[in-house]
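Hi P.,

Sorry for the delay on this. The queue was packed all week, but I finally got your sequence through. Input first:
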Amino acid sequence: MILVTGGTGLVGSHLLYELVKENQPVRVLIRNLSRIEAVKKVFSYYTANAQEFIEKVEWVIGDVLDLTTLNEAFKNVAEVYHCAAIVSFEGKNKNEIIRINTEGTANIVNLSIEAGIKKLCHVSSIASLGDALNGELVDENSKWIASKNRSAYSVSKFKSEMEVWRGIQEGLHAVIVNPSVVLGPGFWNTGSGSLFTTAAKGMKYYTLGGTGFVDVRDVVKLMVKLMNSGINNERFVLNSENIIYKDFFQMIADETGVRRPQRPATKKLLKLALVLDGIASTLKLKKREITRDIVRSSLSVSKYSNKKIKETLNYDFIPVDKTIKELSVLYKKDLMLS
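Then the structure:
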């Protein structure tokens, strides 16, 4: 039996399809059964028999912080894919984000050791990697250094990885993947999906930073390949291409038929937007959308190396322009159906 946490998120739901289509026995830890509909939607992108595939999954109500339900979920489990994590850049929730992500991973690691599972795949993030020195690409060996500029999410993913490495020292077999910004359909209003949706609706401004992007199909295929390999106790950056945000937003605009963003969002402009967003949030006119972490990341340029995973598994990533082209078709189709 394969256990998947975070199976109703972007990576987790696409991973489920990848496993189920190969007739793997899969159990998913889920907090609310209503979230199965989101998974069914993802399945529908790949098959006309989405409901049939959904019924092959064993759904277990529980939470990574609830040891009682976790113990039940671990019965007869041989492999674990740990995808569950809170993704948030809200500064006021910093301590809670760190606690939940770290403790949840610690629980998964401890029970994996107790159950004697064959292998764990931990989904981390490029946010847990260190910074590049002298303009080099960030890779698996880049040293993470604590800083007041680190987001709560970054700290939580770093500490979560430390729990996995601690488990490895205690005899656990595991692999860690560090995806860049994951692009995929089905979650148009959260995470990277909201980034795509914002660009698809048309933007006046583009931000001056840049980062790495990767197709969700590459992420899940590589996770499965690593789990089925003899590779243990290593981490891998999963990144297709490094792209500046201006080019990224323009590609989406071109494919969705909206006007390209024309003007740069400068640091001064973003700081003003941060203040205005904070005021609107305080007055409860809208939910907070812009934080210091978001402003900081939108202005920085980070580049990531995929050399290790490409050489290890002889793998070629889907180009980002191809991903955006295919996402645009699905986005417009979903928009027509909504």
